[in-house]
Structure prediction request, 771 residues.
Amino acid sequence: MFELFTNMVKEEWRVHSTMFGSLSFALFPVMIFGIAFMGSFLLPLMRTTLPAGNLTLIVHANYLMLGLMVGGFGLLGNEVMNRRFGQASLLAYSARSLPLSEKFIFLNFVIKDTVYYFFLWVLPFGFGYVLASPFTGVSLTGALLLLLTLTLSFLFGLCGVFFLSAVYARSRPVLWLVLLAVCLGTGGLAALTGMNPVLFFPPLLLNDAFTWVNFLISCVILALLFGVAISLFNPESVGSEKMYRDAFTPLMQRFSFLPNPPLAAKDTLDLYRSGSLVGQTIFSFLLPLAVIWFFLSLLDPFFPPHGLLFIVAVTTGVIASTMYTWVTMFDTFGPYACLPVAVSTLIASKLTTFAVLQVIPAIFIMAVSILSGEVVYLIPAVVLGISVSFYAVGIMAWLCGLSPNVLVYDVKVLFVYLILVGIVLAIFTAIAFANPYFALSSAILVIPTWLLVKKAKVRWDTVDPEGF
Amino acid sequence: MPGAIGNCSGIPVGSEDKILKGKNPYPGFHSTAMRMPAPHIRHVLNLYPGPGKTTPHGQVQGMDPLIETHDLSKQFGDTTAVDHVTLFVKKGALFGLLGPNGSGKTTMIRMLTGQTRPGSGTASVLGIDVVKDPVGVRERVGIIPEQETPPSFLTSMEYLKFVAAVRKIPDLETKAEWWFDFLDFADKKHVLCKDLSRGTRQKLMFTQAFIHEPELALIDEPLINFDPIVQDLVKEYLAEYVKKGKTIFLSTHILEVAEEICSEFAVLHKGTLLHTGPVAELKARGEHLPSFFLSLVRKDRHV
Prediction:
């Protein structure tokens, strides 16, 4: 098992490092460390406006969300391995030539990805915070405890979605039953204690007061979620030949108003038949945002009036921009290489599909506005969220072309992305805080978005399209 | 006498009857293809275009080449995949690019079809510069890439409809049906590409490359996943295709196939062009392509 695991790690490293160089990839966790280390020096300043407990809450929420967003293995299992790596090209497909079961390989694949994300994101961030602790007035034990609870928070997100998505892949009615049980459980907890159920999140409890019993309980819950998810994984049945009637022609006719109807129809069928459309919407969009909304609602007293709605709108915009990875994550240039299709045409078509998908975040922001009793600010909130999403995707297309899932780990790419998105987020959040209706001004982002997409098309047409 | 033809070409008796049924969107193909003599007889009859007068690089004097490269090179890091290759392919040729594994054949096809930009040198296909207008090249040619990659979540029929929509091919349904029958995979037309066997995927990729009858097809190891019956069908199809004035640029390391069907050939080794010329010229010297190829490559290894 360990040999397979280490070789998978080597492969993962080489996949990324061959794309943009070993140094650039190796610098990625260094950058995360740097951000956390520098950011820690702002803590004394932040504490003047936000109590330490709430800061802890935000950081835990972020790590939970990170875990939630990367935990969709159960849902995508076969397809991720199939289409991201290409059949039989990597160890993920060695079950065909080695005496190893697909479930065993999948287990290694999941553990490898978990460890990989841990070393890329969680550890560098926690390490930065720990190293900065002597200068920020945080005790070393407190910093180490935070590192532990952040790791647990990340793993709760990852294992939670892994479990739910594995259930989803097996039986959708059972998933709804499980979600109903979770809602009833948290609702019951809130009713019984009169407290926000988020406060019972095990890593937060542990961070508040460490006990070995609580730590063990957290570990047991994680092991259960992970174990059940792995056991539910259903290896691809080779030789299954389900027949499908032609859905391409009617879809293409329906999309005749779009610039590239055949490409749009293909993207739609890809999303629908792979199960990604519903699965990604639930596990990579609605679930993380619902969790963030829950956590942020605890900080409502610290935001300006109506601030929560606009913070949620901006966050939704950033998360919604990752829908571009939904339409590009499985698709390489390979199938198009024998056709008269340019990379720029493909980028345009993916962005068109992305634009259609923006209906989902728009509805989500509308729902948040209505549920939080701020329907009067519905339009500015939707405009802000969608404008941010389009702007962020413009940057993503310019920086990553058709490979945002891979190139995000190029430290130069991530750095530029964070700067360009961060500045705009800061400006428009401040504007919305000043006056909610000023958020409508974010519509101006359509101009840089248009320019970025134009630059992306020119840039990626001059680069050899690689198969990632 | 279809039955006899089926026997001599290795096609089970009756299969060609099925092929000939219904509307044929490619007039003239079957009537001759099904009556073609067995491959070994074809060489004796010399059905292919004559060798003509060629320059050392294979350029036919007085005739504009369909494919033309000058000092074409490509490097991947420290590895030189293609090293200053100058090559000409004339209209109507069934041109075989031969070479061992890793000799640069696939890189050549990728450069000629605008999938990879050359490091240096120039290349034009059908008079179009492959760097300036790669999409223009792909619009006019048919391509079978090295690995069969039809999109996973479209069925075979949907994929052909997708190709037809992108290439603006009229009368797709009739043409697709003809190909499903011809390559014998009609039972897979509504199966998702990801569930198809490797051989069926290759049939689908072969179909998408020829369904619009391009004047030039660049095909990379087209026979490798086919069973012997389909291989024979495809070889006959290719031979017949060039007889209609079309051109095929075929990359392979199966020398027997190249000797059997190619009119011209070039040998690529470690990215360098070692030889180019007509197969008939070789035969006239009493040489066989496999032995000629092996001696050439072995000699180059010792240099």
Notes: Strands of chain B lie at 67-76, 79-89, 94-98, 120-125, 128-129, 141-144, 216-220, 247-252, 264-269, 272-278.
